[in-house]
């Protein structure tokens, strides 16, 4: 069932992360999902009995993160870690200093 919240409430609700980005009802894959999705970080916050649970600890990871999550609990090593963004030093380097 689709999230049915007062439009004025939706205007003031924001992601509890430091981005404080707006939330939208449902997900890109399922607009009728009982979640509010952050428009910046992609975390999905459940809506239980019509009440949004805006606790980071209760949030579901972004859909992209679910698809890209490692299958085991091993920490990534510099060899397997994602490449650094342009202009940022690679893990384990001093950044050229």
What features would you describe in this structure?
The protein has a domain of 62 residues: Single Sheet (N-terminal domain of TfIIb). It is 12% helix and 14% strand. It contains 2 helices and 4 strands. The radius of gyration is 17 Å and the shape is globular.
Characteristic key phrases:
alpha+beta; 97 residues; single chain; 2 helices; four-stranded antiparallel beta sheet
Topology diagram in text:
Layout lengths: L6 H6 L10 E3 L9 E4 L5 E5 L2 E2 L10 H6 L29
| CATH C-level label of the domain at 7-68 | Mainly Beta
- What is the helix fraction of residues, given as a range? 10-25%
Number of E-state strands: 4
CATH architecture of the domain at 7-68: Single Sheet
Figure out the total of helices: 2
Q: Average pLDDT, to the nearest integer?
A: 79
How can the largest sheet be summarized?
4 strands, antiparallel
Read across the widest sheet, the strand sequence of neighbours is 1-2-3-4
Radius of gyration: 17 Å
Short description:
With 97 residues, this protein is of the alpha+beta class.
